[in-house]
């Protein structure tokens, strides 16, 4: 029998306040079906291809059957997905102006096959217009497979934020992250100006959520490191002061505090790892006390258009709902 303190560290639970899934040893699972349906529709519908003969576009999602999930075990993520997808496409022959319609069928998108080997079938309604069908079979199929690859990348990054919990090595990781944040800031300040690239189209978001807690407690959940790590279920680095840096969700979210008014307002430069390099949104959190509750008003400017739905998901699912779960747990334990 091992001596006290010398056993397998994966089973040691006393160092975690909540004693839950220490060192990511236990099995956890998250249903990705609903998220995947939205993401696949976003990526596939609107795909367009064109050549000298004609132009085609995927116009609608006709059917999507299947499921997807992500599991965590021993600190590793395991993905399962299986989809049967039917899409409608339409096209026009440039010379004659004649329009045609057809279908794209993806009978089995699953983890058992590589994206490049995934079957993509293109068909067209009866009549002429095979030139459009050929365009969809070649360029169209290539773009569809590219979109499926983007879905899998998003499934393994955006959707899985927060699934790997803090471990005993977290302190060392945080010190390393702090050093990198400091070094990166120094390098940016010392480097010569970088030429501006292509302007990124952006959108603004406004969200409101009501929490059953005093304003002081809700504000602390966003500014106290231990509480941030509890609702995000991942390591966090917070330098809670004007100009201070922060990092959350295993480095997927980074930024800088621009303004902090205790129990009233937080203004941040905010970005997700998969956004265009060096692009930040401005996130403003206003804490409005009501009768026994707090209304959180979120205003965000500068979100890349293609990331709008992901941003909404991040705040609604991974912030608001997780914080409410933490508040319920705190109430029960209290």
Please explain how this structure is put together.
It is a single chain. The protein is of the alpha+beta class and 334 residues long. Helices cover 31% and strands 35% of the residues. The strands form 2 sheets. The chain has a 7-stranded antiparallel beta sheet, sandwiched between helices. Strands 1, 2, 3, 4, 5 and 6 form a 6-stranded antiparallel beta sheet that branches. Strand 11 (265-272) and strand 12 (281-290) form a beta hairpin. Helix 1 (33-44) packs across helix 2 and helix 4 packs across helix 5. The longest helix has 27 residues, at 130-156. The radius of gyration is 24 Å and the shape is elongated. Mean pLDDT is 82; it is low at 1-25, 165-171 and 188-196.
Write the layout of secondary structure elements.
Blueprint: E1 28-31, H1 33-44, E2 48-50, E3 54-73, E4 76-93, E5 99-110, E6 121-124, H2 130-156, H3 170-190, E7 202-211, H4 215-223, H5 225-232, E8 237-238, E9 245-248, E10 253-261, E11 265-272, E12 281-290, E13 293-304, H6 308-333
Antiparallel strand pairs: 1-3, 2-3, 3-4, 4-5, 5-6, 7-13, 8-9, 9-10, 10-11, 11-12, 12-13
Helix pairs in contact: 1-2, 4-5
What is the average of the pLDDT values?
82
Any idea what the shape is? elongated
Q: State the distance separating the first and last CA atoms.
A: 37 Å
**Number of distinct helices:** 6
Q: What does the largest sheet look like?
A: 7 strands, antiparallel
Q: Tell me the fraction of residues in β-strands, as a range.
A: 25-35%
Output the strand order for the largest sheet: 7-13-12-11-10-9-8
Radius of gyration from the CA trace? 24 Å
Helix content: 25-40%
Structural class category: alpha+beta
**Beta-strand segment tally:** 13
Q: Which regions have little confidence, pLDDT < 50, spanning 5+ residues? A: 1-25, 165-171, 188-196
Element string (H = helix, E = strand): EHEEEEEHHEHHEEEEEEH
């Amino acid at each position: 029998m091992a001596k006290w303190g010398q056993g397998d560290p994966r089973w040691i639970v006393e160092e975690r306040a909540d004693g839950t899934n220490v060192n990511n040893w236990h099995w956890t699972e998250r249903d990705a079906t609903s998220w995947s349906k939205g993401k696949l529709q976003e990526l596939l519908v609107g795909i367009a291809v064109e050549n000298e003969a004609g132009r085609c576009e995927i116009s609608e999602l006709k059917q999507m059957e299947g499921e997807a999930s992500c599991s965590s075990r021993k600190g590793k993520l395991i993905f399962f997905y299986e989809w049967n997808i039917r899409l409608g496409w339409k096209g026009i022959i440039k010379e004659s102006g004649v329009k045609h319609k057809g279908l794209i069928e993806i009978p089995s998108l699953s983890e058992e096959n590589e994206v490049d080997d995934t079957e993509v079938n293109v068909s067209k309604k009866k009549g002429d217009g095979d030139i459009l069908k050929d365009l969809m079979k070649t360029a169209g199929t290539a773009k569809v497979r590219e979109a499926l690859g983007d879905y899998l990348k998003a499934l393994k990054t955006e959707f899985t934020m927060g699934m790997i919990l803090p471990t005993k090595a977290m302190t060392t990781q945080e010190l390393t992250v702090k050093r990198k944040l400091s070094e990166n800031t120094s390098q940016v300040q010392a480097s010569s100006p970088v030429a501006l690239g292509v302007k990124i189209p952006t959108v603004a978001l406004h969200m409101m959520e009501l929490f059953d807690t005093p304003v002081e407690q809700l504000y602390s959940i966003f500014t106290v490191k231990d509480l941030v790590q509890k609702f995000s279920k991942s390591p966090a680095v917070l330098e809670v002061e004007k100009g201070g840096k922060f990092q959350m969700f295993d480095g997927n979210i980074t930024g800088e505090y621009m303004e902090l008014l205790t129990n009233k307002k937080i203004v941040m430069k905010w970005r997700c790892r998969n956004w265009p390099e060096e692009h930040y949104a401005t996130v403003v959190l206003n804490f409005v006390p009501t009768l026994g509750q707090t209304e959180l008003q979120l205003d965000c400017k500068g979100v890349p258009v293609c990331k709008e739905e992901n941003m909404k998901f991040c705040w609604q699912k991974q912030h608001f709902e997780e914080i409410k779960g933490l508040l319920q747990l705190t109430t029960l334990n209290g």
